[in-house]
Amino acid sequence: MTTPTPAPDLIAGALPGYEIGAELGRGGFGAVYAARHRLMGRAVAIKVLLDPGAAAGPDPFDGSGGSGGDLRTRFLAEARVLAELDHPHIVRVYDYVEHAGLCLLVMEQLTGGTLRTRIASTPPSRAGSAWTPSDQLARPGNLDPRSSCAIGLTAATALAAAHRIGVLHRDIKPDNLLFGADGMPRVADFGIAKIVESSTVTTTGLLGTPRYMAPEQIEGTRLGPGTDLYALGVVLYELLCGRPVFGRGLTVPALLHHHLSIPPDPMPEVPAPLAAVVLAALAKNPADRPASAHDLALMLAAGATAVFGPGWLAAAGIPARLPDDVLTAAGHRLGDLLPGMTPGWAPPGVSPTLAGPTTTPPYPMHTPRPGGPSPTDPPPGPPLTPTRVAPTPHGRRRRRPRRRGLLIGAGVTLVVVLLAVGLVVGLTAGGGGDAKPGYAGQQLTLDRGTFFDALALRRDGTVYVAVSDSGVGTGAVYEVTASGTVRAVAGVGPAPASSPTTTRTTTATTPPATTSPPPVPAAGVPAAQLVLNEVHGLAVAPDGTVYAADHAADQVYRIAPDGRAFVFAGTARGGGGFTADAGLATRAALDGPAAAALGPDGSVYVAEGSRIRKITKDGLISTVAGAYGRSSTTVIGDGGPATKASLPSPSGLAVTADGSIYVADDYLDTIREITPDGTIRTVAGTSGKDGETGDGGPAARALLSGPTGLALGPDGSLYITDTHNAKIRRIDPKGVMTTFAGTDSGVSTGLDGTSAGEAALTGLYGVVVDPSGAVYATLNQVGTLLRIDPANHIVRTLLAPPEK
Questions:
Q1: Which element (helix H / strand E) includes 547?
Q2: Catalytic residue among 144, 171, 469, 770
Q3: 47 is known to lie in a ligand binding site
Q4: Domain presence at residue 658
Q5: Total-model pTM
Q6: DSSP letters spanning 578-609
Q7: Containing domain of residue 191, as a range?
Q8: What strands, in cross-sheet order, belong to the sheet with 727-731?
Q9: Within a domain: residue 228?
Q10: pLDDT tens digit string along 720-770?
Q11: 171 is catalytic
Q12: Among 278, 405, 607, 635, which has the highest number of CB atoms less than 10 A from its own CB?
């Protein structure tokens, strides 16, 4: 059926303040006209819904579907949605009018055409110009791949803004990605957008365009942000490969079948870092796609930086207004101008700020808590000049003064609320009802091994401890089961003694001393052959998978339950890699990983350099706190986004069930919290002051000195290894700081069998607490794993090297 065209004078009657111009285009149920406001002179586009009554019986595959009344409802919904979305990469709406059977939407006029027309008009000489010569895309119609990635970033950040207010687009495709006269991309046509209000959000009829439909959209099941990410993944695939995801010439039923059941065609012509991002977005299961549009933007930015190098975003020639963390992931120096920007430039509706190191992203992934950074926060300073420090007991110079590592036992929840009177810790124990106590028997012995480092606790009561000797490559990870069996889990280092209480299930020889461990192939190596040096962070999953953060190797290893070890994150020391905020974890350059913790979704959090990184189960890395290369002698960033905060020496981590992250910093002598919305605050210690005072008062006013390990007790108390004070400090559920173990005088009659308050705890390192309330800790320099009984507070040595 031919849709009638309304006379311009009918439109003018509805909008007397506008001069109506020529028709710009039309779709199945609407037309778009050029217009100009008579008084302001602003050029606009008027989208007109034509004769809703003529909409009966549409083709179910044309992406429109529904009755005339439904169309009007959707058209009005589009107006309301766009009115809420004030974002530089989303088309703006100025007015909505109903008049004489017409529904009119007055919106921003975009004269730069659609992405589809831009693809079609791109001369062959530009195709693939940013690939290496051997990988060039020589097919006509392809945009420069840097431009394609930049367009993808703008679309992803626009979708992130929509998703934050509960809006799904549901029809992302090249026709709905438009360009303004300035060349800036905009996401348009929210005409079938759906407000995400409840768990019953599903498709009603086949809405969308089959070529770009996600499997759940075809099946009519629950939709979510991943639905839009899938469609954007299809667009990126077409841009980077120059061909459809599933080949050409498929019928609509065949195309839908491919979306549901057939993997996308491989992308051999696209470099692996970019191909991995696109294919992740095209996962059939929404849960396997990036967690959010913002995460997709970070991954895409980092992948492009890995391929093209720093400066690619400016070279792409696409005006883009992106959050600071995305700009950083794209290798862009904050504060430099991108195409289309001049000093003080900002799109309409956005304050004219430059994305400098102290500027809050104009469209953050998480809405900061009210108030933002305190006006009393000191301004950011230049990075600290590295200082000369004494060698560690391992013989390797620490990268920062007093830097130490950490193990955090996963699976317990801490709720921290800052009140005027101090810190209150919620009484939320974790680990579930099936968690079991750890070993509490007689002392066990290792036949060699001088230094005990990180600790971890599994739900079944197994304690994991990282051990090393004075030689290079002699590190190892051991487990001590609840029944008292010691077993080597990984590494070629010290072996358990051949006593009735120990077993040895792996054999290996100590490698020759080298400055770097041998590379681990993608297929992995037997865990007994994994060369470890200084494991400063351990985390263990419920299935027994162990994650070991090797501070000296700049890598994190995954030790599978079947006994094979793999590189989980980081390139080998001196092996290059990117330093951007997101991308493939195995391509990331890590700076002395010092702590590891397991998140509630199975992701692994790692403290490295001056940042906290999150690594998903599928191997993608992003930054959740700290700015690369930014350091300070004082706390900077409290009350604002964690990604802008200073973290000069993060030494310990804990992640709660709700996603809150706690960070010990042994340089600032503080414990800080990163809330699920991305805000950071200090919850214990005083920046710039080290000491041991404050017992009996609020934790936020207490002094710490070199905090390293963190653990949560069954009553919700927080335990801290206050390393330089040789104490274990405790914050009770009321927020009061006390000393749990260690002597004030520094004089002790011994260790084994002494009261916790009289114990000499020199070299405190890791700490975990089992469900019974027993506290386990390592003494690094004397090579000891100890247990403090929850009933009588007596210290017992559980594991030690032979006496010298």
A1: strand 546-550
A2: 171
A3: yes
A4: yes
A5: 0.51
A6: B-SSEEEGGGB--S---EEEE-TTS-EEEEET
A7: 112-355
A8: 707-712, 718-722, 727-731, 737-741
A9: yes
A10: 999 999 999 998 878 899 999 998 665 555 688 899 998 988 889 999 988
A11: yes
A12: 607
